[in-house]
Amino acid sequence: MKDKVEKILSSREWTFADLTNMSRLVRDFSEEIYSQLDAKEKITVVWERAIRKEDIQHGELFGGFFQTLVTEQIQLEVASILQEQLLSANVNFGNNKNKEDETNEVSESSVGGESSPKRSADEKKSSKNKK
Length: 131
What we know:
Elements: H1 2-10, H2 16-20, H3 22-36, H4 39-46, H5 62-87, H6 99-103
């Protein structure tokens, strides 16, 4: 489940506004994950879940009951995973470049490229530069 949540999180750039409505975020992630799961995976999600009397509504069809159980369990797991991910997330404010990125830029020609035709790699300093 964690890998599915991480995949959705990394699939796009999120705005702060996107991430502020946790209940909607959990619901949207859960719906997407539910649609990706096959029947066996859905059974696995709820296999160990205890069924309480309150969970069962008289006259409810099994399909609806099963879908509700699976969706609720996915939402619980997604909420926990999202909380964990967001608490350890780094925030980037728009166009602010990391200062380290600016100072550590290396020109393309200096990395593994050919030597400059104007200068040889073993050129000696001229006597004019020495004092």
